[in-house]
Amino acid sequence: MSGSMSYHAGLAAEEAVARLYSKSGHVIAAQRWRGRGGEIDLITQEGGDTVFVEVKKADTHAQAAERLGPRQIGRIRDAASEYMGTLPDGLLSSVRFDVALVDATGRIEVLENALH
After folding, report:
1. Taken in order 116, 77, 9, 25, is the CA torsion positive or negative?
2. What is the pLDDT of residue 85?
3. What is the residue range of 99's domain?
4. Is 116 a member of any domain?
5. How many Å apart are CA 61 and CA 32, to the nearest integer?
């Protein structure tokens, strides 16, 4: 897949995941939020919880999961900490880190609380 096609497929996957979270009652707080530490694909609010969602797309869910490495997890955590600084309870806020895997058919598998 060319870079441009891959980029647009990734955006489409992020939009599909955002719709899924919205349908399940989450309020979308931000999409592709960028801080000094990195980017977070999707940030939602569910009740009093902030949910940080990393979206990974590949031919299969297993291949998508393999695309999330330790360095990227570190960048997600850094960006999340920065975002949490904007919340009323700051770093004491109730948060969760989900990973949404999207396969070639568009099927989405959400791994709640995947990054501890």
Report:
1. positive
2. 94
3. 3-111
4. no
5. 21
Is residue 59 assigned to a domain? yes
pLDDT of residue 115: 85
Which position has the token pair 């969760």? 96
Strand partners, 96: 51
Side chain identity at 1, as an amino acid letter?
M
Cα(54)–Cα(114) distance, rounded to whole angstroms? 10
In a domain, 13, yes or no: yes
pLDDT in tens, 66-86: 999 999 999 999 999 999 999
Number of domains the chain contains: 1
CB proximity list for 67: less than 8 A, separation 6 or greater: 56, 58
